[in-house]
Amino acid sequence: MKRIFHLIFLFICFSQIGFSQGKFFIQNKKKSAKIKFKLINNLIVIPVEINGVELSFLLDTGVSKPIIFNFLNVSDTLKIKDTETIMLRGLGEGNSVEALKSRNNIFRIGDAIKLNQDLYAVYDSNLNFAPRLGIPVHGILGYDLLKDLVVEINYSHKFIRLTEPQEFSYKDCRNCERLNLEFYNNKPYINVKVNINEKDIPIKLLIDSGGSDALWLFEDASLGIKTDNKFFYDFLGHGLSGSVYGKRSRVKAFSIKNFTLEKVNVAFPDSTSILFARRFKDRNGSISGNILKRFNIIFDYQHAIITFKRNGYFKEKFSYNKSGIELAHDGVRLVKEREDVILQDRNSTSNTQNGTKIVLDTRYRMSLKPAYSIVELRKDSPAEKAGLELGDVVLSINGKQAHQFTLQNLMSLFYGKRGDRIKLRVSRNGIDMYFNFILEDLFK
Predict the structure, then answer these.
(1) Are the beta carbons of 268 and 219 closer than 8 angstroms?
(2) Backbone phi and psi for residue 225, each to the nearest 5 degrees, phi listed first
(3) Least confident of 45-54, 230-239, 376-385
């Protein structure tokens, strides 16, 4: 997968978090469980069962407690109980959001189970990130799973392995790097290096598997953490408290001990969006999915250790959206589809064998197909200059119907080579309109 997307499920600051009794344990003799996941936009989507209901969650190392989104659609089914109302605050420039804190829920992930798990259920039905991913995602889960079990994330083969700590043993690995973890508010941090303007700078980063970008840095001129002359202002992602914007650029190199990645994408979020993130003053930013996926990783919270082993994604070049368009799944639309039916007229003697006439009958039917709308449009981007607008529904791209793509595959076309031509047919207020533009590389 060579193209990256900018969707961010961002770390959340809780004011009323306590520790539940009990922990996750494995219900089999091996005390280990393997769970397959979907890698969507560099994000890990795993199956999670809550109170007997099967859901899909993001595995997000940047959150302390499980959160369920789009709460109004699932609350009755989950039989949420023992609740109290609280306010949650996350990244973005918006306000805090209201949620229910619920106790004594049963969580199951493969053969891993916890019998009395706290969760936070968000009221606001608008906080539904599934449209940005193109698949159902009901919530996020992080620390409570990672603190109890050793969690191996195999990005290359798309599975996680959960093991009870007393049953886990490390193997010799010459191509691995092992680092110490530090924790602040139950979130993991590592010390790494970044090269900016020919200077190697040691930095402390949150490990944020719930972010699809590569690297976020908080600008600090005193440390040399700042953009050079090549950057553009862009939408960076959507957090619990609203959209996040900032500068996009590249750094010359990024190093995790002896592993070095070159020409790495970096984002510098606006200061107003990261006020709560900056409460940990030693923090310099985040390392997210577009870097993490280049390694198979072992999280061992009980020993405060993380192990990186490079995989097949390691040498993949960093790319970015050269169109300026962000799309989201926006319900469904009726599509007229052609259906060719072969009929046999056995009463005819005008044709062939056994007096049977073959007739090709062209029919049409109306079907419901996914609709993809423009939800973000970068100023002065090729798409904006061509005349596209927020809310336009994409009907076709380069002559192919939009509904024939997944959202992920459709977005990947905007991460193509400089000079690629994009032809779009869109619906605006019920009127079909045609646009085309050329992908531009602002770093060339």
Answers:
(1) yes
(2) -90, 95
(3) 230-239
pLDDT at 349 over 60: no
Cβ distance 10 to 240 under 8 Å? yes
Q: Is the domain covering 325-335+367-438 a CATH 3.20.20.70 domain?
A: no
Residues in the chain: 444
Same fold, 25-167 and 325-335+367-438: no
Q: How far is CA 173 from the centre of its chain?
A: 29
CATH superfamily of 180-300: Acid Proteases (2.40.70.10)
The tokens describing 404, both together, are 């024939």
pLDDT by residue (tens digit) across 300-309? 999 999 999 9
Delimit the domains of the chain by residue range: 25-167, 180-300, 325-335+367-438
**Res 111: pLDDT:** 96
**Which class is 25-167 in CATH?**
mainly beta
What is the DSSP code string of 33-45?
A: EEEE-EEETTEEE
Residues 6+ positions from 158 with CB-CB distance below 8 Å:
36, 37, 38, 39
Residue 379: per-residue pLDDT: 93
Q: CB neighbours (10 Å) of residue 161?
A: 17
Residue type, 415: Y
Distances (CA, A) of 430 to 189, 208, 396, 408, 426: 49, 41, 15, 25, 9
Fill in the DSSP letter of residue 347. T
The kind and range of the H/E element at 339 are strand 325-345
What would the DSSP string read from start to end of 284-298? Answer: -EEE-HHHHTTEEEE
Per-residue tokens: 280: 């940990």
| Six-digit token string for 285 | 């930013």
Do residues 19 and 99 lie in contact, with contact meaning Cβ atoms separated by under 8 Å? Answer: no
Please check whether residue 427 is in contact with residue 393, taking contact to mean a CB–CB distance below 8 angstroms.
yes
The runs of H, that is alpha helices, within 101-190 are 130-133, 143-146
Q: Which residue has the higher pLDDT, 13 or 126?
A: 126
- Give the number of C-alpha atoms closer than 13 A to the C-alpha of residue 316, restricted to the C-beta side: 22
Q: What's the whole-number mean pLDDT along residues 128-141?
A: 82
pTM (global) more than 0.90: no
Higher model confidence: residue 437 or residue 276? Answer: 437
DSSP annotation of 403 reads G
Phi-psi region of 391 (alpha: psi -120 to 50; beta: other; left: phi over 0): left
